[in-house]
Amino acid sequence: MEPSPFELPADTVQRIASELRCHPADERVALRLDEEDELRHFREHFYIPKMQDLPPIDLSLVNKDENAIYFMGNSLGLQPKMVKTYLEEELDKWAKMGGYGHEVGKRPWITGDETIVGLMNDIVGANEKEIGLMNGLTVNLHLLLLSFFKPTPKRYKILLEAKAFPSDHYAIESQLQLHGLPIEESMRIIKPREGEETLRIEDILEVIDKEGDSIAVILFSGLHFYTGQLFNIPAITKAGQAKGCFVGFDLAHAVGNVELHLHDWGVDFACWCSYKYLNAGAGGLAGAFIHEKHAYTVKPALVGWFGHELSTRFKMDNKLQLIPGVNGFRISNPPILLVCSLHASLEIFRQATMKALRRKSILLTGYLEYMIKHYYSKDKADTRKPIVSIITPSRIEERGCQLTLTFSAPMTYVFQNLEKRGVVCDKREPDGIRVAPVPLYNSFHDVYKFINLLISVLDSAETKE
Ligand SMILES: Cc1ncc(COP(=O)(O)O)c(C=O)c1O
Prior knowledge:
Order of helices and strands: HHEHHHEHEHHEHEHEHEEHHHEEHEEEH
Helix content: 25-40%
Bound molecules: pyridoxal-5'-phosphate
Strand order of the largest sheet: 2-8-7-6-5-3-4
Distance between the termini: 46 Å
Structural class: alpha/beta
Strand content: 5-15%
Radius of gyration: 23 Å
Largest sheet: 7 strands, mixed
């Protein structure tokens, strides 16, 4: 019954339906997919919110004791149950021994980040010395740009995708301002073609080829927050570096979602947050990557004492012995309470592995896509039927968990009525609803239930009109 690694999700759904002698949209297909899911027990490691606790819920429409359909792990991942235990361990240590906690226990506070950093290797595809856990995402982006963006009169642009996340956009603008560069000319934004939602790789590569000599840094998101498009990180990296650019990625929506091989791809630098697919809680400890090839050449512009080698850090002689690579970019001592929540989540990732998670994710999101297309593809014969369009690319290599949906019915109506029925997802301007089934804690049955709620919401939108 194991699907072949090359079986497309739609084929798996149809194969199971024919084995069960039912329609592919039948509930039994979802239940069978769950039965066959080897990762299903990981759901037990998380707190799944209950319907009754969701602020926008309408209790007349749901069973209050049921689990919500949480499809918002692309924004804030759910809480691993071990977070509380790990926090309590450190709070207890603090209560019982005060400052001695810096040096003893499972996570000595001085090296708290270092005790868990190895758990990130598989997730980003890098070795331990290339990964730093520190600060917030945008702070790390600034620290990296301060070192990698060294404009010259000939090479002064930063290349990025259209509608990049506002924080990235502002970070780039302010970095250009720091160097006194005109923003219009120096911020090279690639837009999708007229009438298209996502970027074509050939268009990205063409801009790099034509304008690469004037580009100092290419900064792309790994996976676009709005469209859900996964960019071809190795191809962009290779093309940019061939033109002499540094190539970096904001991996906020890619980390813990798709497989990454930052080291092997030769990416120059990257940063990410930990509160989305990494489930470390709001404002969690962010990450940064600098390829080891830059360990001795790219230095931090701003230095603090945690960039100093541990062996002599406490000599306090003010003679900097900088740690090579990204760990030299650490400025302050690690926030141990944030280390705890990330630790709890990364241990789950270690058990599950990114490879297996991605495999499930392809099928889970593929099942969602299959069901949406089944009910809501554009049917020219029936002009009254609501249409749901998926703006996320349909190619598996070009997306992660998330699908971004647009509707012929008013988006706010659809969103609010999903929320009332216990679907947790988010809306993003201009007109998208992002839904992200996460393989660690979402089930195929969640997708099935979501589709049925969507049907009832869209039916009610129709009768309202
Ligand atoms: C793509 C992207 N970049 C940057 C940020 C901002 O992150 P932070 O507030 O952690 O700096 C986010 C937040 O959601 C994001 O999605």
